[in-house]
Write a structure and sequence with these properties.
The complex is a heterodimer of chains A (226) and B (245). Chain A has 226 residues and is an all-alpha fold. Chain A has helices spanning 8-45, 50-65, 68-87, 96-121, 125-133, 138-168, 180-191, 194-225. Chain B is built from ten helices and no strands. Chain B has helices at residues 21-55, 59-73, 77-91, 94-102, 105-134, 138-146, 151-166, 168-181, 193-204, 207-236. The chains are: A mainly alpha (226), B mainly alpha (245).
């Protein structure tokens, strides 16, 4: 029978906490940029200008067809090299954190834009017509009338996507960046206690994601009855 | 930008002398397809079972099914993969764990990846099956029970034949996901498509060609699956329902 030894966890907590900060930073920035860029993509996709809507459709379909791991590998192995040659960045500068955030944000924007597009389309057409009748331009009607209603309906889906994104940040493992999971597996390797550290990491992710998903569900039922 | 493109590198004999670099890629392609399809089969069977259990009146059974879904949905795929690969062989009964550790490394990687993807995806399939069953008009179940069907018969002859047809379109995106998620298995050393991409970068020193080729292979899988599923969806469409004729 396997003998558990959890003793390496207490001493490693500061290192693990630092890893968690990295995970949360990547999540927060990627959600923010992802939603802004995703909103723009959704508006382009619904625009009557063909060039814009084709660009948005191509972008979204390309990113949705490729595994996140592949996108991250592009951003870790190829994009830094490209930036070095294009902009003369010093060779070998550590761009892993920046690459990770850029990769996640650009990838998640594709998924956010699909949620936001559905949200915009769920707002009755009459709202746009009424806004135009009041003399608002396209940008004004979008900003003041359509998007506020669309986002209100989308909040649960956007949050759920945020939970998925938080879980996916563990994939920065492919770049050896010490996020929470990377930190846990490093400590496990160092102390020969990989079994305990992996179970501990799994438990921490579970508690965080389960709690937030229950809150989202609670908010969703409140939204329905409101 | 000073990069010399050389697509011919893919056709050159590989450094290890076993065919060409394109051959490496094809090996990874087959691994990705084989792994994803077998995990999908497992996810469909388990997911259908768990999804049905979530809707039964028995509180213990539906609670157990709910716990199953929450467990596999709230832990990152990578963590689950590492637990299957590194942790469970240690915790399993000694005979089983040792047999696993002494088997061929490729078998170890494949089995862990299969179990991981299968269970992970089954939780998502279960959610779709549950919402398919819940979307049926309540009268169907009541009518079945009223004419004397047992609960099992009501599921077997009335509810499931409808629910399984309704659930096909939402399952398409899960089917697409399993191919993409299989790329995570490169982290335990399984030589699937993404892992071959990394190898290609290391061996050929032509990173752009290698990654573009592998990325296009994923796009190809995506397109083929999408067209195939569109045909399946047309076959199982229920007349009178959303998207029916």
């Amino acid at each position: 029978m396997y003998e558990f030894d959890w003793s390496s966890i207490p001493g490693a907590l500061p290192f693990l906490a630092h890893g968690m900060v990295v995970s949360l930073q990547i999540t927060a920035v990627a959600i923010l940029v992802g939603i802004v860029w995703g909103t723009l993509l959704a508006m382009m996709r619904l625009s009557s200008v063909n060039a814009l809507s084709w660009f948005a459709a191509g972008y979204v379909n390309l990113f949705r067809a490729v595994p996140l791991v592949m996108v991250l590998l592009w951003f870790f192995l190829i994009v830094p090299h490209l930036l070095e040659t294009l902009f003369g960045f010093p060779r070998g500068s550590d761009m892993r954190m920046g690459s990770a955030i850029a990769g996640f944000a650009l990838f998640e924007a594709a998924y956010y834009s699909e949620i936001i597009r559905a949200g915009i389309q769920s707002v009755p057409k009459g709202q746009m017509a009424a806004a135009s009748a009041l003399g608002m331009g396209y940008a004004q009607s979008m900003r003041l009338v359509v998007l506020p209603q669309a986002f209100r309906n989308m909040v649960p889906l956007l949050l759920t996507q945020g939970i998925i994104l938080f879980q996916d940040t563990s994939l920065v493992y492919v770049s050896a960046l010490a996020d929470f999971f990377g930190a846990a597996s490093k400590v496990g390797d160092r102390d020969g206690r990989l079994v305990e550290m992996l179970l501990f990491a799994g438990a921490v992710y579970f508690v965080i994601c389960f709690t937030i998903s229950q809150l989202v569900r609670y908010y969703q039922t409140k939204l329905k009855t409101a | 930008m000073g990069y010399s493109w050389n697509w011919d590198v893919l056709l050159q004999p590989s450094a290890t002398g076993d065919g060409t670099y394109l051959g490496w890629m094809f090996y990874g392609f087959k691994m990705t397809i084989g792994l994803s399809l077998s995990a999908w089969l497992m996810a469909l069977i388990l997911g259908a079972l768990v999804g049905v259990l979530r809707t039964v009146p028995n509180k213990a059974l539906s609670g157990l099914a709910a716990a199953y879904v929450e467990l596999f949905r709230n832990i990152p795929l990578l963590v689950q993969l590492f637990i299957w690969y590194f942790v469970l062989p240690e915790l399993a009964p000694a005979a089983l764990g040792d047999a696993f550790k002494q088997s061929n490394p490729i078998v170890q990687q494949f089995v862990s990846a299969l179990l991981c993807l299968g269970f992970f995806t089954s939780a998502r399939v279960a959610e779709q099956v549950r919402s398919g069953i819940n979307s049926l008009p309540r009268g169907q179940k009541n009518a079945a029970l009223a004419i004397g069907f047992t609960l099992a018969q009501a599921y077997r002859y009335v509810m499931l034949p409808m629910a399984f047809r309704l659930v096909v379109p939402p399952l398409t995106s899960e089917f697409l996901n399993i191919f993409k998620n299989s790329a995570v298995c490169s982290t335990i050393g399984l030589l699937e498509l993404a892992a071959e991409g990394r190898q290609l970068v290391d061996y050929t020193a032509q990173p752009y060609e290698s990654f573009i080729a592998v990325t296009l292979a994923y796009v190809l899988i995506n397109v083929v699956v999408m067209f195939a599923m569109r045909r399946v969806e047309a076959q199982v469409r229920v007349p009178g329902y959303m998207g029916g004729h």
